[in-house]
Structures are given as structure tokens and as C-alpha cells.
Amino acid sequence: MSAQIQTFFDPATWTFTYVVYESDHSPCIIIDSVLDYDPKSGRTQTRSADTVIDFVRSHQLTTEWILETHAHADHLSAAQYLKQKIGGQVAIGDHIQVVQKVFKGIFNLETSFNTEGTQFDYLLVKDEMIRFGNLSFEALFVPGHTPACMAYKVDDAIFVGDTMFMPDVGSARCDFPGGNAQTLYQSAQRLLSYPAETRLFMCHDYPPQGRAVQQETTVAEQKKSNVHLKDGISEQAFVQMRTRRDATLEMPVLILPAVQINIRAGQFPPKEDNGIAYLKIPLNTL
Q1: How far is the C-alpha of 34 from the C-alpha of 75, rounded, in Å?
Q2: pLDDT, tens digit, for every residue of 246-280?
Q3: Are 164 and 226 spatial neighbours (Cβ–Cβ below 8 Å)?
Q4: Taking a C-beta distance cutoff of 8 angstroms, is the pair 153, 1 a contact?
Q5: Which of 49, 110, 157, 243 could form an SS bridge with 78, CB 3.0 to 4.6 Å?
Q6: CATH no. for residue 117?
Q7: 90: pLDDT strictly greater than 80
Q8: How confident is the model at residue 286 (pLDDT cuts 50, 70, 90)?
Q9: How far apart are CA 125 and CA 156, in angstroms?
Q10: Which of 69, 61, 81 is nearest to 19 (CA)?
């Protein structure tokens, strides 16, 4: 039996979370979960994650892996909450160590903050294949948006993270620390080298006015119509476009809280002597 894919959309962050499984009572993986966060109050809630949990429980699935495509800058990960409620190992690409080193400096994190990725249960290496029940996922290393981006291939589906968006939106920015437009172009070409019918599942969608939110496209559709990456656009042209465009973009609303949580695998910073955990806001830095 081929993989079943259940999609959950978080409208507050335009994020898709996926549960991938074979059938009821089978193992599953969860990709790119969302912890609700109110930047005005600093409060977190679990509505989005609870919807995923309800689905997993109602179909009597066994959570084996909770996967992150990268350390997101636009939403907080619910990985630790999911692990607490329904189990599973939290995993990300092994280059998260690079990201941790950079942001430990930017946020001047506590001396004890480990930059070897030990906050995660498992670090995936390039092209690693891992089975869950009768299915398997392959970890595809697709850096560029960040140095640690992974895409996950299951059967004929690839969950591309922020490597690319729907054809009418294009590609992700490359101006975060460690990002690189040339590298992103090469990563996108790797994904576009798969057969034309390969299904590509987005991490986000930011639809133009008048189009409904969509999460799925194909290699063929991207090669024909992607406004940044379609056939005929050279690496040089892409890098020039991406560099100009990135220079005009504001930082994502949640980048400061999100990165601090996500490089910790969804854990909060250590509580201080008053029993409260705090996030830092570096002034005039990013």
C-alpha cells in the first residue's frame, strides 16, 4: 500500500503539517508541526498540535518520527509537545549544528547550550533512508534557505520544506545567516531532477490574491511554471533575482522567538530563578 498523507494547515503562520502513514494502526511520521504563539503576550497554545494528535489517535497510529525540515523562522515547533503526548523521536538534519553555532552567538545563549544537536533525538545525514513500518523516508539534503535544510521523500512524494513554494510564489529567501542563493538553486535542481509526476508538498503557501491555499504540486508543474525556478532560468539569473528580492524583505514576524525555540528541538529555554523561561530580543542585530 502506498503512503497516505494527511495535511493540516495553520492559517496564522501559513504552515502545513503532514502526517504520513500506510493505514490505520500503522506507524507514522509527522513533518513540520506548529506550536501556537502569540507574539503580543508571549503565550503559547497547542490548538494546532492537538488537531494532529487527535488524528493520530483516532486512526490508532504509532508515531515513530517527528521531523523538522529545518529550524523554521516563521513558526514555533510543537515537536516536544507531540513527543510528550504521542511519542516519537524528534529529528532534523545534522547541519543543524551550524545553525546552532550561529544563533548561539546572535542570542548570546547560556554557556551550557549545546551546539552539537543533542537537543534532538536523532540527526539525519544526507541521503539517509529510514523505515517506518512498511514505508520509508529518505532524507534529502537541500541547503540554501538555511545551511541545514532537509526534504523528505516517501514513495512518489517529497516534502520540500522551504526549498521552493507553489509555482506562482517561487522560492524561499536566502538572506538568513548561512543562507546562500547559489546553493538554493542547486538544491532546487536536485528536487526538479526527479520524475515529472513526483508530487511536491510545500511547507508553506503564501497565495496571491484570489487563489486558495494549496499545498501540492508536481515536478512537471514547477519546471513549467515556477516564477523563480522554471526551465530556462539560469543559476546566475536566479542568484541575481534572489539577492535583489531578499534585500527588500522584512524579517518574519516570529523569527526571534521561533529560532530560539526551534534550535532547541521545540524545547523552551531553561527557567530562570523566578521559575519563568525567557526569550531574548537582540537589538539592532538582524
Answers
A1: 6
A2: 999 999 999 999 999 999 999 999 999 999 999 99
A3: yes
A4: no
A5: 49
A6: 3.60.15.10
A7: yes
A8: confident
A9: 21
A10: 61
Q: Which positions ≥6 away from 276 have C-beta within 8 Å?
A: none
Q: What is the pLDDT of residue 2?
A: 86
- DSSP type of residue 268: P
pLDDT range class, residue 1, cuts 50, 70, 90: low
Q: Residue 248: how many CA atoms within 13 Å on its side-chain side?
A: 4
At 198, list the grid cell: 513526483
Residue 232 is assigned to a structural domain of this protein: yes
What is the rounded distance in angstroms from the CA atom of residue 156 to the CA atom of residue 154?
6
Query: Looking at residue 20, what DSSP letter applies?
Result: E
CA distance 19 to 86: 13
Average pLDDT, integer, range 75-97: 98
Structural domains counted in the chain:
1
Q: Which domain holds residue 180?
A: 4-262
Q: Which amino acid type is present at position 109?
A: L
Residue 2's alpha-carbon distances to 5, 20, 224, in angstroms, are 10, 10, 27
Q: Which residue has the cell 513500518?
A: 133
Q: What is the C-alpha to C-alpha distance for residues 42 and 49, in angstroms, rounded to an integer?
A: 18
**pLDDT value at residue 38:** 96
